[in-house]
Design goal:
With 421 residues, the chain is an alpha/beta fold. Helix content is 21%, strand content 28%. The model has no long low-confidence stretch (mean pLDDT 94).
């Protein structure tokens, strides 16, 4: 096309984030919010990772399709992502299902969530579309994926993870040739196809796709006119292109962003209570696998104006302390001890209490003489004085949501049902 190879392709791309996910495996954490809006890492929401990747990659046109219980997500996007300005050729659109195309209230599938907004996208004239899932935690430079798409003249480029072959049974798996051209796409196979160069590994779809915009719109319109289609990228659009066009796999290992403290490519689907708890607690390690302190690839979010964290009291048995823990602004640890825990903004932990491996969401209040181990506290929970959780599995399971991995999820409704509350 005569394009200057030094010119970033991201400049001519639009990132489109699919953020309507229900996230039912997160149980009560998604009773009031969509999965992409769930808190993560002390300050962020899960969706901030996909959005930050787009921004850090040089993409300045972003759309977010919302659907399920979207108020918390929309409020976060309006507060934290309103710094993109049209006068600088930037844009940020929040796109709820609005019955603009059909009489159906909801987007019927991931592809339909783009199809219904074709006219809005066309107004910006992007040459490329980068379709993203809004519910994964990772750092990735999409410019490198765009470059591969152009260099290989692909119809679609699919972001893929290299995973142990028998762990890929829960993914959409790519069967590729020696040049990573996709010859088959298999959804959740019992016997996943191996990578040609790594027979013990498989290529699993990340739900990230790159298209030229014109080609994508042709496929979306064709799919919308196809009777019986589920209007989904993974089920309909990608398999059709694999069969009738050129689909290429892009290996995450080639575009993942790593600081000097990160040894390997980091990607997590924090879609279960256990996975969510573990990914947050992993951040308390001395050298965590995910480096949130990397200033060259910041995770942007809504930065609340709050006072600093504070630790008070210095007596035996009543000492405000935190070991291997992350403590956000406006937290007060008053004569309590934290170990391997993560506190979001505005948490209060009162005297003689101890928290170990606890993920505590914003504005929680932990009363005196409380002992919590291996727990997740939903936003705004007030833990009554003397409550003990994490030491008796049978008692915990009767009172709270206890996961297969032994993590207790605690909500205010559960607290209110306790006999002494």
């Amino acid at each position: 096309m005569g394009r200057n190879r030094e010119q970033p392709l991201a400049r001519d791309a639009m990132a489109y984030v699919l953020a309507g996910g229900r996230g039912s495996r997160l149980k009560e954490l998604t009773d009031r919010r969509a999965k992409p809006a769930v808190y993560f890492g002390g300050k962020s929401r899960i969706i901030d990772f996909a959005l930050s990747n787009a921004l850090n990659s040089g993409i300045r046109r972003i759309g977010v399709a919302t659907q399920y219980k979207a108020h918390s997500l929309i409020r976060h996007l309006q507060q934290g992502w309103n710094f993109l300005h049209p006068e600088r050729n930037e844009s940020f659109d929040i796109l709820p299902a609005s019955q603009r195309v059909s009489e159906h209230q909801w987007y019927e599938g991931t592809a339909d969530a783009v199809f219904q907004n074709i006219d809005i996208i066309e107004d910006y004239h992007p040459e490329f579309m980068v379709i993203l899932a809004g519910d994964h935690v990772y750092k990735m430079d999409y410019e490198l994926m765009l470059r591969q798409h152009v260099d290989q003249n692909a119809d679609v480029t699919v972001g893929c993870l290299e995973v142990p072959r028998m762990e890929a049974v829960g993914f959409g798996v790519m069967h590729v040739d020696g040049e990573d051209r996709i010859s088959a796409f298999v959804e959740k196979p019992a016997d996943p196809p191996a990578m040609p160069d790594k027979p013990d590994m498989a290529l699993a779809s990340m739900g990230i796709y790159v298209f030229r915009t014109k080609f994508l719109f042709e496929q979306l319109r064709r799919d919308a006119a196809t009777h019986g289609s589920s209007r989904d990228f993974g089920k309909d659009i990608i398999p059709y292109i694999v069969q009738h066009g050129k689909a290429v796999a892009h290996r995450f290992s080639t575009s993942c962003v790593k600081s000097r403290f990160e040894d390997k490519a980091y990607w997590r689907d924090v879609g279960t209570i256990d996975a969510y708890w573990e990914a947050n607690i992993d951040l308390t390690d001395v050298v965590p696998e995910l480096d949130l302190y990397d200033r060259e690839w910041p995770i942007w979010t809504y930065a609340e104006v709050r006072p600093p964290a504070k630790f008070v009291h210095d007596e035996d048995g009543r000492r405000g302390s935190a070991i291997s823990s992350l403590v956000s602004g406006d937290c007060i640890v008053s004569g309590a001890s934290l170990r391997s825990s993560l506190l979001f903004t505005g948490v209060r932990v009162n005297s003689f209490s101890s928290l170990e491996e606890a993920v505590v969401m914003p504005d929680c209040i932990v009363g005196r003489n409380v002992k919590l181990k291996k727990v997740v506290l939903d936003r705004g929970v007030e833990v009554p004085e003397g409550l003990v959780v994490g030491f008796d599995p049978e008692v915990d399971a009767r009172r709270f949501r206890r996961s297969e991995g032994g993590v207790c999820l605690i909500t205010q409704e559960m607290i209110d049902r306790l006999p002494y509350s």
